[in-house]
Amino acid sequence: MTGLADYRPLRLMAEDAEDLKIMSAMLQDAVAKIGDFAHLPRARRFAFVANRFVWECAADRKRGPFARVRAGCHFDDVKSVRQQNLRSGAKDAVVELLSIRFEPTGDGAGVVALDFAGGGAIRVEVESLNAQLADLSEPWPARLKPEHREA
After folding, report:
1. Residues 6 or more apart in contact with residue 118 via CB below 8 angstroms
2. What is the pLDDT of residue 14?
3. In this structure, are residues 66 and 58 in contact, taking their beta carbons and an 8 Å threshold?
4. Three-state secondary structure string covering 24-59
5. In this predicted model, what pLDDT tens digit does every residue of 2-61 receive, in sequence order?
């Protein structure tokens, strides 16, 4: 895709670590408020909404137009959720998602790790990997494309 005219709402499912890598790439540099993350124990679900950068329309361009879109993501079959180095009481604090990865523990179970800029993380223990991501809004202009330094 080469521009915003090519934008199509994203809908992805992840059932294994390879699927989750694709979902992670689409959510890289998404921004959200701490209050936009929710563990729903009765539903055995962890869900969040975030403003994701529309990477699929940015290609390798250094100049715009660029866009962000509101997206929702959820994980099912959740056993527990732990936060690390995040101020859970600061509901309006903004975090930037760097990556999502799956750490298997056996028999399809594992931990989904959401890693944030600044060293924060959310660890979601799941019985099996079952995730969905969907765009919820129309895209809006973004001035800048997120940059990453080479390691």
Report:
1. 85, 95, 96
2. 98
3. yes
4. HHHHCCCEEEHHHEEEEHHHCEEEEEEEEECHHHHC
5. 467 778 999 999 999 999 999 999 999 999 999 999 999 999 999 999 999 999 988 777
Q: How far apart are CA 85 and CA 51, in angstroms?
A: 21
CB-count burial class (<10 Å; 0-12, 13-18, 19+) for 151? exposed
**Beta strands, E only, the chain:** 11-14, 31-33, 37-40, 45-53, 66-76, 78-84, 94-106, 109-116, 121-126, 131-135, 140-142
Q: What is the CA radius of gyration of the chain?
A: 15
The residue assigned the tokens 């055995």 is 44
Burial class (CB in 10 A: 0-12, 13-18, 19+), 65: middle
Q: Is residue 14 within 8 Å of residue 131, measured between CB atoms?
A: yes
> CA nearest 14: which of 133, 139, 140?
133
